[in-house]
Amino acid sequence: MRQKRRINGSWLLQPGDVIFLLAGALAHAGVETGHAVLVVHGGEADMLSGVPAERYREGMRRALEAGYRALKHGSSLDAVEAAVRVLEDSEWFNAGRGAVFTHEGRNEMDAAIMEGTHKHAGAVASVTTIKNPISAARLVMEKSPHVLLAGIGAEQFIARTLSESSDTDLRKKVKLVDPHYFWTEGRWEELQQEWKKQASKGHAALDGKKHHLGTVGAVAVKDGKVAAATSTGGMTNKLSGRIGDSPIIGAGTYADDKACAVSATGWGEYFIENVVGHDIAARIQYGHASLEKALDSIIDIELQNDGAEGGAIAITPKGEFAIAFNRLAQQMSRGYVTADGKISIAITEEKLPPPK
Ligand code: ASP
User: 3-state SS string over 142-207?
Assistant: First the structure.
């Protein structure tokens, strides 16, 4: 069972937390702010072992370039979808190819997309055969009467929509693949490590700490209209059928032109219980908090105090952005592009340099 690890409140501090807090205090970047049209993240926590940092930097750059191109010719919704698709296609991030494994050795993916003008959203959860779950989420939003479809029902809906459509671009964009497409050695190795740890503990508890690597997300704005997208394989060793915060509207993904668009990463159960995406927007809309203060309060203070590592990116209709990850998370891949196309990227605990 999941146990809350409250740090500053009444819960006991565990020895590991002390190390985390000390390391985190050194590495913590605070809330990073600026102006941009598109911001992306490649998840909190470490990189896959042995994979050069350059791979992550390159993934971020390609996602920002694709999103920026889409933004020029289309909407903020097009931009977040395009950016996330690039990261889903890269095996180094925990989304699409490269998704982590469930305890049972499957890849079950979650994704959501939302636009802030009409507050329309679409999401898929626990899907196993959709190459780009974020585009499936957009199809749910645009072609179904629902917001969230899960598992086999989501896959059947996508297959039916594709077979009934004469749109060749759509067929190119949304593809069904064999589940083996998502298998990658690094993620399989991570699961083996978890199995070993569990065997030595004698129980199957998912403690969450550092079991989530590289969820991806994007937020964008165009003409005052914001959008958000998030895609993930969830947490290594999760039980089959577990759904995290990413496809839950208001938790890991949220957009409202009256406040901001948010994409989160971290220990999903806490993000659901704290309704993090909506909480950030509500602090701005009703509490008149600044974007920076809103992210700081929930990510750096409340989730941190609950013992939940995580981070979020957010953007307002005016193009102010904020990026935060707490001391327990310690690091997050992230980047942004300004209106004139200048890109800035930071990997892990690096500070975001000024745009190039
Ligand atoms: N939030 C994701 C989940 O819990 C994991 C992550 O962000 O890395 O499913």
Answer: HHCCCCEEEHHHHHHHHHHHHHHCCCHHHHHHCCECCHHHHCCHHHHHHHHHHHHHHHHHCCCCCC
Distance 126 CA to ligand 1 centre (A): 13
Q: H helices then E strands: how many in the chain?
A: 11, 13
DSSP per-residue letters across 283-308: HHHTT---HHHHHIIIIIIIIHHHT-
CB 324 within 8 A of CB 312: yes
The tokens of 22 are what?
A: 């000390």
**Ligand 1 centroid distance, CA of 176 (Å):** 23
Distance of alpha carbon 11 from alpha carbon 328, whole angstroms = 16
Q: Which residue has the tokens 């997050």?
A: 332
pLDDT digits (tens, 9 = 90+) for 306-320: 888 899 999 999 999
Does 10 have pLDDT greater than 50?
no
Q: Whose CA is nearest to atom 9 of ligand 1?
A: 234
Vertex 233, ends 112 and 66: CA angle to 5°?
A: 60
pLDDT of 266 > 90? The answer is yes
Q: pLDDT by residue (tens digit) across 105-139?
A: 999 999 999 999 999 999 999 999 999 999 999 99
pTM: 0.92
